[in-house]
Design a protein that fits this description.
single chain, mainly alpha
């Protein structure tokens, strides 16, 4: 089960790289970060900030999973350990959805971003489902 979760994590990294590259390719010179207010940064700054943030988040979640999971879930079984190991996957999907929405928001062909606003809500829903599952595994009797 842990091997499956690790495969999903790698696939989520590949998906992020594809979505990030496509969003970056179609962005104008000044990237808008909000549909309402005019928060803009340069395209290159967006690339470096997005890449660095993704790398930093993955390193931090890897450290959390690697060093805190054995102490927290040692007696809860393999399913609980695999569920905790899915944290980087969940966060990667969330970040990918945000980048996808920013790509639509800044698309020069002017695709209406209102049609893709659901991308902002998929990440938190998946994250809260993950937290609910973690609570279930922590409170379940073996």
């Amino acid at each position: 089960m842990i091997k499956t979760v690790n495969l999903l994590r790698i696939l989520s990294i590949i998906l992020f790289l594809i979505v990030f590259a496509l969003a970056y390719a179609y962005m104008p010179v000044m990237v808008s970060l909000s549909p309402v207010e005019r928060w803009e940064i340069h395209r290159e700054s967006f690339f470096y900030f997005g890449s660095g943030s993704f790398l930093l988040v993955n390193i931090v979640t890897w450290i959390i999973v690697k060093y805190f999971t054995p102490a927290l879930l040692q007696s809860k079984g393999e399913e609980a350990t695999a569920w905790m190991a899915a944290l980087p996957f969940v966060i990667n999907i969330y970040i990918t959805m945000i980048i996808g929405f920013l790509g639509v928001l800044n698309n020069p062909t002017r695709i209406p971003p209102d049609n893709y606003s659901y991308l902002n809500f998929i990440g938190p829903v998946i994250f809260f489902l993950w937290i609910g599952g973690l609570i279930y595994f922590l409170t379940r009797k073996k």
